[in-house]
Amino acid sequence: MKVRDIMTNPAIHISSAETVEVAARMLTHYNIGLLPVCSPQGKLCGVVTDRDMVTRCVALGKQPSKTAVREVMTGRVLSAQPEMQASVAAHLMGREQIRRLPVVENGKLCGMLSLADLAKQEQSVMDAADALTDISSNISRGSVW
Q1: Around Cβ 144, how many Cβ atoms within 10 Å?
Q2: What tens digit of pLDDT does each residue of 20-53 get?
Q3: Mind giving me the DSSP string for 59-92?
Q4: Which class is domain 3-137?
Q5: pTM value?
Q6: Most CB contacts within 10 A, which of 45, 85, 111, 136?
Q7: What is the dihedral of CA 143, 41, 80, 47, to 10 degrees?
């Protein structure tokens, strides 16, 4: 099974110029924990999580309504390609301790793959379980997102 077959599409995303306050409202509205950050042309340039907002904005006394997403986002982004095998993406997620993986095609964001997406598919439920085990058992390494 390919990533394309199970990814969430379209992916909710945000501009790097938008404020942390808007990002937080989007996370709440869509009940998600990560937003891909894209250029106006749709190129993936980072991700922002609720944790990024707390540790890089709120905890430092910055105002979410006046702080741009680009100031708090994580710039190092791992991604999958739509034609990648879901099992390979699951292995990557486990190894890198991430629960969500942006999907990029021709340099542009085209979807998101989460452990939940993998777990919903009978063919990939074991891959999702293995990835979650890897994520949970390597706590000391720390998570990128």
Answers
A1: 13
A2: 999 999 999 999 989 999 999 999 999 999 999 9
A3: GGT--TTT-BGGGTSB-----B-TTSBHHHHHHH
A4: alpha beta
A5: 0.79
A6: 111
A7: 10
